[in-house]
Amino acid sequence: MLGTRRRGYPTSSACIGSRCAEPRATRSAALALRWRQPDEEGVPVENATIERETLTWDGFGAACRDIARAIVVDGFIPEVVVAIARGGLLPAGAIAYGLGVKNCGAINVEFYTGIGTVLDAPEVLPPELDMTYLDGRRVLLVDDVADSGRTLALAVRLLQERGAEVRSAVIYTKPTTMVQPDYAYADTGLWIDFPWSFQGTVLDEAAH
């Protein structure tokens, strides 16, 4: 289901105000491709397939614009936008532009190491955000997706411990998330191909 919602709204009515977003992401079993998935003993299994949802650059721009509108309608004007790097960097920048917010930062958290592979727990990586500035300020925390929700929960807690009034926004939520962000554009149970990451790195290309 696509739309932009505030936390506490039922998923079946995922809109803010009278406006619901038009579908901008595509999903298809035809987009399934081969990947290496560890079995129960951690040994990679070849020839597994996964159905994917693809977000285009145009869809990304529209999603971030809709999230920014929802935040304004909600009456929450952040003083600072903080991205969860790396996935939240581009959404945070686009949403910050939409809101006219110039004070931006990032908190580096690693959890996913590949498709379907994660660390035991999210880890905060250097360089660390100077959080003394956040005390008493309205902060919008942005990520690309709330999957398990553990990364988002960790980042929210860290910012709140420094005295910030925190609200969170993501492009996608998944049924598996342990926390619901304040603002979300779409729900999906599929692996998501984001336009900035689905092609892999240029280093990978050079190696082949």
Summarize the structure in words.
This protein is an alpha/beta fold. It has a single domain (2-207), classed as Rossmann fold. 23% of the residues lie in helices and 40% in strands. It has helices spanning 57-74, 89-99, 150-161, 202-207; strands at 2-6, 25-38, 44-55, 80-85, 104-114, 117-125, 138-146, 165-173, 183-187, 191-193. A 7-stranded mixed sheet has the order 1-9-8-7-4-5-6, sandwiched between helices. Strands 2-3-10 form a 3-stranded mixed sheet. Helix 1 packs across helix 2 (89-99). The longest helix is centred in the first third of the chain and has 18 residues, at 57-74. Keywords: Glycosyltransferase, Transferase. This is Phosphoribosyltransferase. InterPro entries: PRTase-like (IPR029057), PRTase_dom (IPR000836). One of its GO terms (molecular function) is glycosyltransferase activity. Residues 57-198 form the Phosphoribosyltransferase domain.
- Provide the succession of SSEs: EEEHEHEEEHEEEH
Give the helix proportion (percent range): 10-25%
CATH architecture: 3-Layer(aba) Sandwich
Q: Tell the overall outline.
A: globular
User: What ranges have pLDDT less than 50 throughout 5 or more consecutive residues?
Assistant: 8-47
Q: Report the end-to-end length measured between terminal Cα atoms.
A: 38 Å
List how many beta strands DSSP finds: 10
Instruction: Tell me the major beta sheet.
Output: 7 strands, mixed
Please give the radius of gyration in angstroms: 17 Å
